[in-house]
Every structure is written in structure tokens, then in C-alpha cells.
Specification:
Elements: H1 8-17, E1 20-22, E2 32-37, E3 42-47, H2 51-64, E4 75-79, E5 84-88, E6 93-94, H3 103-122, E7 125-128, H4 130-148, H5 154-168, E8 172-177, E9 186-188, E10 192-194, E11 201-204, H6 210-215, H7 221-231, H8 237-260, H9 264-276
Antiparallel strand pairs: 1-2, 2-3, 3-5, 4-5, 6-9, 7-8, 8-11, 9-10
Helix pairs in contact: 3-7, 4-5, 4-8, 5-8, 8-9
């Protein structure tokens, strides 16, 4: 990792804050730097490889960040040509390192439900078929790629197609969604924090539950109950069936990306989700 004065993340931080010091943190991905200023305040500087995700994250902070004041980083600076952001640090412990089955883990899921419920209600849009049509096409593209790489059987191909058909004919509620809403992007302290907004956009509201449903809640139903107690509105039967269709997107995406990146963990995840779909 380059952290010299020529590093655009350090340069952006120095322009905004003055003298800063990089705090080594090997748990962070290489694109993130943890920094402190002369007063001991903490910040993160982030450089994107992908311009679309950079612009999406900028939009998230500038257009919707006010719905999560006190629970999300604030954007202090940006540099478009290097796709670099300077963000305040949200205090707290990453939720994905909390002890499984602990009171803190359950509290985190309750607060996660409360926070995303607040975001969804503040940005709610009318029910329509437009988002379903887009998602159906997106799933169909992943199915085609999985089929071309012979990652799925003929029966699995048929099953995934049936979920694409459900999406195409379903009218669904929309809201601004985080779209990577899971414990690795949550922080628990005196309050509750959310980070990593590079996927955020208006989408089907229920999609924000898909990664939790298929990656975290199967072995821990008490976390699901805590989340929806915080969210305030449980899923009805129709919404639960729709969530299964989003599981099809999770499965196909994981299989294809796992194959393309030679990532056995992703492939295993994709096969596990696919096996759950009926």
C-alpha cells in the first residue's frame, strides 16, 4: 500500500485537515486508509477503482446522508479525477466480530432494522412494476452467464428462470436501499453506525433484507426477529416470497463471480443459496 505524500488519499486529507497521520490497520482493505489529525479525531480516506461506485457513493452521502445523521460517516472532501473520498469515522465495534449469540449481536440487528426502516420510510416511493422488470433482466443476465460457464444444471436453470419471471410480473415498493446491508458494514457502540454506501440507490425495498436472509439469519432466527422488531413492520407472505426471488439473484451472482474470480467461498455461498430455493 502506498501511503506517501503522493497518495491521493493522504493528499486529500491534508488539504482538508492539515497535518494527518496514517494509522496502520491490516484489517482494512487496501483502498481504505485510517487517519488521525492533530486533535486525535479519526477519519477514513477511500479510493475507488470503479468510477460508477465512486459516483454512487458520492450521491449517497450528498443526497441521502441527512436521513442517517449521527449514524453514518460525513463526506468531508472528494477528488473526482482520482475517485477519492474523505470521510469522518463512525465510532463503534464492527458487528461481524461480535460473539455469536451475544446480547450485543442481537442489539445490533435490532438497531440495524430500526435504522434502515427510518431510511426506507423517509425515501419511500410508489409501488410499480418498473423495478421488477429491471431486476428480472439483471437476474436473467446472471443466469445466462452461469449457463454459458456450465455452472448450473438444466433444472437449476429452469428454477432460476422461474424467479426471473416472478420479478418481471411483480409490482413492488421502492426506497433508497443500502444494498450491502449486513454486519460487516455495521458498527455498534453507544449508538449504531452504518458504512460503505457504494451500492446505494433506489431499488426494491425488500432487497435490503436479502443478504441478511441468505447469509446470516438461517442459523440464527432470533436475529431476524430482533431486526424486524426494530424495523417495525414484519414481512407478509407476498413479501417473503419476493425475498426468495432476490435470493435467486444472490445465488446466480455468487456463482458467476466466484467462478470468474476463482473464489471457492463465493461459489460455495452461491450453491448454498441455490439449494435453498424451491
Amino acid at each position: 500500500m502506498i501511503t506517501t505524500r503522493d497518495d491521493p488519499r493522504v493528499e486529500l486529507a491534508r488539504k482538508a485537515l492539515g497535518n494527518v497521520r496514517v494509522l496502520p490497520d491490516h484489517a482494512l482493505p487496501p483502498r481504505l486508509l485510517r487517519l488521525t489529525d492533530g486533535r486525535g479525531c479519526l477519519y477514513f480516506a477511500k479510493q475507488h477503482d470503479n468510477r460508477e461506485r465512486y459516483l454512487r457513493e458520492v450521491q449517497a452521502y450528498e443526497a441521502w446522508g441527512h436521513h442517517l445523521v449521527g449514524h453514518a460517516p460525513r463526506l468531508l472532501g472528494r477528488h473526482d479525477s482520482t475517485r477519492t473520498l474523505l470521510l469522518t469515522a463512525v465510532p463503534g465495534v464492527p458487528v461481524d466480530i461480535l460473539a455469536a449469540g451475544s446480547h450485543e449481536e442481537e442489539r445490533a440487528h435490532h438497531e440495524a432494522g430500526r435504522m434502515v426502516g427510518m431510511l426506507h420510510r423517509a425515501t419511500a416511493g410508489p409501488r410499480s412494476g418498473a423495478i421488477g422488470a429491471v431486476l428480472a433482466q439483471r437476474l436473467q443476465n446472471w443466469i445466462d452467464r452461469a449457463g454459458s460457464a456450465t455452472l448450473i444444471s438444466a433444472e437449476e436453470h429452469r428454477r432460476l428462470n422461474s424467479y426471473a419471471n416472478v420479478l418481471a410480473r411483480t409490482r413492488m415498493d421502492s426506497a433508497v436501499c443500502h444494498l450491502d446491508y449486513q454486519p460487516r458494514n455495521w458498527l455498534l457502540g453507544d449508538s449504531f453506525g452504518i458504512c460503505d454506501f457504494e451500492h446505494m440507490r433506489r431499488d426494491a425495498r425488500i432487497r435490503d433484507f436479502a443478504r441478511l436472509e441468505f447469509r446470516h439469519w438461517q442459523a440464527a432466527p432470533q436475529l431476524r426477529a430482533a431486526f424486524f422488531a426494530g424495523y417495525g413492520t414484519p414481512l407478509n407472505e407476498t413479501e417473503q416470497r419476493l425475498l426468495e426471488s432476490f435470493g435467486a439473484i444472490e445465488a446466480a451472482t455468487a456463482l458467476v463471480r466466484g467462478h470468474e474470480q476463482d473464489d471457492r467461498h463465493l461459489i460455495t455461498r452461491g450453491r448454498s443459496v441455490l439449494a435453498r430455493l424451491t
